[in-house]
Write a structure and sequence with these properties.
Elements: E1 3-12, E2 16-23, E3 29-37, H1 45-60, E4 63-72, E5 78-84, H2 87-100, E6 103-110, H3 115-124, E7 128-131, H4 141-152, E8 159-161, H5 168-177, E9 182-184, H6 198-211, H7 218-224, E10 229-231, H8 232-247, E11 250-255, E12 260-265, H9 270-273, E13 283-288, H10 297-304, H11 307-311, H12 315-320, H13 329-350, E14 353-359, E15 362-368, E16 377-381, H14 383-387, H15 391-396, E17 414-417, H16 423-430, H17 434-445
Parallel strand pairs: 1-4, 4-10, 5-6, 5-7, 7-8, 8-9, 11-16, 16-17
Antiparallel strand pairs: 1-2, 2-3, 11-12, 12-13, 14-15
Helix pairs in contact: 2-6, 4-5, 8-16, 8-17, 10-13, 16-17
Length: 447
């Protein structure tokens, strides 16, 4: 007899497609997970998705399902370019919104677009262009100039405008006359030291879902999927925000084969806020494209320096034969060592720093970047933490790589491991079933 599954959530990654099965209701249950290679190179990611469903059936038996939702980072994920006025102000705000939505930012520009910038945009072929610039009722000229130059490219790429409120009508006309889709949202930087990234973050995900059919085979996936398709890093952020509203300030780390993502949802401490140079969003994501335990393993190996040879006498052999999924005990230990370096560097880049200077009144302290001192929970998600022994210890030692000036989580912060590897799936689920998603992810943590 075939089982009945309420909902499947697919995670279509760059190398692996995963399908998670759930039964919903007042006491939701995670039933199992199927996996298969992602088939972007075959021109149809649907093949990998069907393969993952078949793998799930091999594990739990035959079943029928009522709904399917999905997240994806296949075919390069959500490729975006971001264009604003001043780098430390509107550009930075726009970048935070794009990263929080799960974007893979390929180009960032400040000020008027140059010919070389426009050439790069054409080569990148972004999925979405984010245009900002000017506080409300401030500079108008730069965003209008950039809008006209982007429209002249005739890229047939959706544009989101999140700049000076006074430019809205003009920007709409510019792109509509060029036959290009344009979406108008609230300014990401409406006034000095005021970030407003949430409306833009949500719009990016809506536009991504509408246009995801451009990835190879995605039109067929859209036929299978009955609900949301959002970028995978954006799904992790959705889950992090859901958890923040229930358990408080947190940081989540995902060490992948190609990148290491750090998400944090926190306002920081009142004391630190008073001396922070630039405002920070409530929900922040940083993605380190050079830190990955498979695709970018050589980068991590080089960062380890001579220390890695003290730990592994055959380090050269291990790095030259590294596998996407380590099998032998020594291979697992080696990958875990690389992961510890990825974690150390990624958290250092994500966290803010306390600095000082001497002025007329003596030493003055100030903070640049993210304050993590109020974080109560440190979450590990992804294969490193769910499938390798020792991942939890890496997170417990998160302060070891600092110099004392970094604004790291306190030693009292508790570690949670996403043992079922469903944080992204729960983020997708939360868009429609927030209560069930929260219970499922907390079950995965064991709380």
């Amino acid at each position: 007899m075939r089982k009945t599954i309420d909902i499947l959530v697919a995670e279509i990654g760059s190398t692996t497609t995963t399908v998670n099965a759930f039964v919903l209701g007042s006491d939701p249950v995670f039933i199992g997970q199927g996996m298969a290679p992602t088939t972007v190179l075959d021109g149809d990611v649907n093949i990998g998705l069907v393969g993952a469903i078949e793998n799930l059936k091999d594990k739990i038996g035959d079943f029928v399902y009522s709904e399917m939702l999905a997240c994806s980072s296949a075919a390069g994920g959500l490729k975006m370019t971001v264009h604003g006025l001043v780098y430390d102000m509107t550009v930075r705000a726009a970048k935070e919104a794009a990263l929080g939505a799960g974007a893979n930012i390929k180009l960032i520009t400040a000020g008027k677009l140059r010919r070389t910038d426009l050439e790069k945009i054409k080569q990148i072929k972004p999925n979405i262009i984010l245009l900002a610039g000017g506080v409300d009722y401030g500079d108008r000229e730069t965003a209008l100039y950039n809008g006209e130059k982007l429209a002249e490219l005739k890229l047939n790429v959706p544009v989101i405008y999140a700049g000076n409120i006074e430019n809205r009508e003009e920007i709409s006309h510019i792109f509509q006359e060029a036959g290009q889709e344009v979406y108008i949202v609230d300014n990401v930087y409406p006034s000095i030291d005021n970030l407003n990234v949430e409306p833009t973050r949500k719009m990016i995900q809506k536009v991504f879902e509408k246009h995801i059919v451009t990835a190879p085979g995605m039109s067929k996936v859209k036929e299978l999927v009955t609900g949301n398709i959002i970028p995978t890093p954006g799904a992790v952020m959705e889950c992090a925000i859901l958890l923040y509203n229930d358990i408080g300030d947190l940081m989540a780390v995902d060490i992948g084969g190609a990148t290491t993502d750090v998400h944090s949802v926190t306002e920081g401490s009142d004391e630190i806020q008073k001396i922070t140079v630039n405002p920070e969003p409530l929900a922040k994501r940083t993605v380190e494209g050079d830190l990955g335990v498979f695709v970018n393993s050589r980068n991590l190996f080089d960062l380890c320096g001579e220390d890695i040879y003290k730990k592994f006498s055959n380090a050269d052999e291990l790095i030259n034969n590294i596998k996407p999924v380590p099998q032998k005990e020594e291979e697992k230990e080696f990958v875990l060592y690389l992961a510890s370096k990825a974690l150390e560097v990624a958290v250092k880049r994500h966290a803010g720093k306390l600095s000082s200077y001497f002025g007329p009144t003596g030493r003055t302290f100030y903070v640049e970047g993210r304050d993590l001192t109020n974080v109560k929970w440190i979450i590990g998600t992804g294969g490193i933490f769910s499938r390798l022994e020792g991942g939890e210890k890496l997170l417990e030692n998160i302060n070891d790589g600092g110099s004392g000036k970094e604004l790291y989580p306190p030693s009292s912060a508790k570690v949670l491991i996403d043992r079922d590897y469903i944080m992204a799936a729960c983020g997708v689920l939360s868009k429609k079933y927030p209560d069930e998603a929260l219970k499922l992810i907390k079950n995965s943590f064991g709380i």
